[in-house]
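=== RUN LOG ===
request id: a7f3
mode: sequence -> structure
chains: 1
length: 250
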Amino acid sequence: MLLVKRESIYIPLFFGLSGFDYFHDTYSGKYSIFLSDNEQEYIDKLKIRTRTTKELLSKLWNDKQFKLLLKVTGGFIIWKLGLVKGWPFDMGARKTIEVLRRILKKENWRDSNPFFIFVNLMEVHEPYSRLENPQTLIKSFKRNLLTGELNFEQVLLWKQVYPKEVDYITERILEIIKILKYEDMFDNSIIIITSDHGQLLGEHGRIGHGTFLYDELLKVPLLVKFPKEYESHYPGGTRNLGSVSQKLNS
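=== RESULT ===
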């Protein structure tokens, strides 16, 4: 199994994700700004055994990987300051696609047994501005949850940026599908595109997600493309990527 993952700040790699032969974390460019491909693979392997940035840096120090320690520290500081190019509009999707393209070429996947690829994209997710940080977002969520108070400047910003993020991530998903087509993997693959939740942008006097059960949060996309040889077994009533395929050929 192959995992190309953008690490969620809420679901780190050591939680609930196991059994994969390969993984790559590109969350927000964290650590990886100055790393070569080989160095990034080395860090990815270390992250399986280290739960925090502090543990990762300590491991590099104990292993006398001082040059790599400097690179990782520098990358983390730049990420922490919100200076990563494109952040937060792009939280690592382009890098994720680069990694996916590289490893599909590097490994002889077509000659192996059936394999599973999981790609987790965090775009269309707060923060929507460099000025938003976890502390201010948590305060805003708590205030809204407890008092129903809304920050209307925040709501306006979210409503402006959210549709653009949706368009952007749609383009990245289409790019992934193009890669699968180029590598001759599209026709014989099951492809599932979905989301774990929606987002409240001021509807019902609320913002965010994770606490409420409104339709805006529960009704998420679910698109399924069956392998070509099985399509005739699922006539009508199925959702597929036909419209996406049309876009690819347009």
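=== NOTES ===
The two ends are 32 Å apart (CA to CA).
The helical segments are 37-49, 53-62, 66-80, 93-106, 134-147, 152-182, 215-218, 242-249.
=== END ===
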